[in-house]
From TrEMBL:
NCBIfam families: oxido_grp_1 (TIGR03558). Residues 22-252 form the Luciferase-like domain. This is Luciferase-like monooxygenase. To bacterial alkanal monooxygenase alpha and beta chains. One of its GO terms (molecular function) is oxidoreductase activity, acting on paired donors, with incorporation or reduction of molecular oxygen. The lineage of its organism: Bacteria, Pseudomonadati, Pseudomonadota, Gammaproteobacteria, Oceanospirillales. GO terms for cellular component: cytosol. It comes from the Bacteria. InterPro entries: Bact_Lucif_Oxidored, CmoO-like, Luciferase-like_dom, Luciferase-like_sf.
Length: 332
């Protein structure tokens, strides 16, 4: 059984735009958030790639990674993830090879095969729908481009070859778990929006893991929503922001992060409540005592090597304080 004490903890962020805030202010807030995580000893800070989603400002993922790496010191900065079918592997290798040259040993490359957008925007990205089917081959191509330089190859990633970029496969189903196991790569499961398959995917990954030149033992990260506050009542109140945003996602509305509300029953039907709660089934909401108990129970069911959290709290100071409380959970 994994222990919460001294377990590495990390963060996933979408550069969510709070209601009433513009994008420049949001990105400044994002930078302060990453800096606090760096000061507190969080292991990683990942940004997710999304396109044409009003309220989500992480579309130029590699650009944001460079900005945050420039304003932090120790924390690893990376993608959670780059949606590989949207990009030629050579371009990804050059971008992340450049980031690695600027911030050696601090850049992670998490890769997914979903579009991160809607079908119309996929076409605007010149995305070939069949490329998702070639995901395993493109992973191999990207590994070759970022790996030891091969003098006989005519196409090389420069920068990129001989880099220290750490590659992860991301998943919300069993496909990427199987592929990560076969390739001997670290694996991160998206429990923050696909909770039902988390345990099965993580078990499949560990059972079928094959050692590789980059990883001799399986390494699994579980991402889940965490709303941490001074007490349970405050945490439940703050959690209504993420509940409202999931509801907006299901209704096809903009995804700004709204302020919390006193009563969600005024905003959703019984059926919508059930759908939102199913989406957030792995969400941990509470004060330090409750959160610790919930996380320890989760680790007993799904032992992982690292926990990664989303932290959708509207108020910036309470959001930063939640990082303080999370760091205390694993230091005790």
């Amino acid at each position: 059984m994994a222990s919460l004490a001294n377990l590495p903890i990390s963060l996933l962020d979408l550069a969510s735009v709070p209601t009433g805030m513009d994008i420049p202010a949001t990105l400044q807030r994002l930078q302060r958030y990453a800096q606090r995580a760096d000061e507190l000893g969080f292991k990683r800070f990942w940004l997710a790639e999304h396109h044409n989603m009003e309220g989500i400002a992480s579309s130029a993922t590699a650009v944001l990674i460079g900005q945050l790496a420039a304003h932090t010191h120790n924390i690893r900065i990376g993608s959670g993830g780059i949606m590989l079918p949207n990009h030629p592997p050579l371009v990804v290798a050059e971008q992340f090879g450049t980031l690695d040259a600027l911030y050696p040993g601090r850049i992670d490359l998490g890769l997914g095969r979903a579009p991160g957008t809607d079908p119309i925007t996929s076409r605007a990205l010149r995305r070939d729908d069949m490329r998702a089917e070639r995901f395993p081959e493109e992973i191999a191509e990207l590994q070759a481009l970022l790996g030891p330089e091969q003098t006989n190859k005519r196409v090389k990633a420069y920068p990129g070859a001989n880099s220290q970029v750490e590659m992860f496969l991301l998943g919300s189903s069993l496909f990427s778990a199987q592929l990560a196991a076969e390739r001997g790569l670290p694996y991160a499961f998206a429990g923050h929006f696909a909770p039902r398959l988390a345990q099965q995917a993580l078990e499949l990954y560990r059972t079928h893991f094959q050692p590789s030149s980059s990883l001799t033992e399986p390494y699994a990260i579980l991402c889940l929503p965490l709303i941490l506050a001074e007490d349970d009542a405050q945490a439940r109140y703050l959690a209504t922001s993420s509940q409202q945003r999931v509801l907006a996602l299901m209704q096809g509305q903009p995804l700004y992060l709204p302020p919390p509300v006193d009563n969600m029953d005024e905003h959703w039907s019984v059926m919508q409540q059930a759908q939102v709660q199913d989406f957030l089934a792995l969400s941990v909401v509470g004060g330090p005592v409750s959160a610790r108990s919930k996380l320890e129970s989760l680790l007993a069911q799904m032992p992982v090597d690292e926990l990664m959290f989303t932290n959708d709290i509207y108020d910036e100071q309470l959001r930063l304080h939640a990082l303080d409380l999370a760091a205390e959970l694993v230091s005790e």
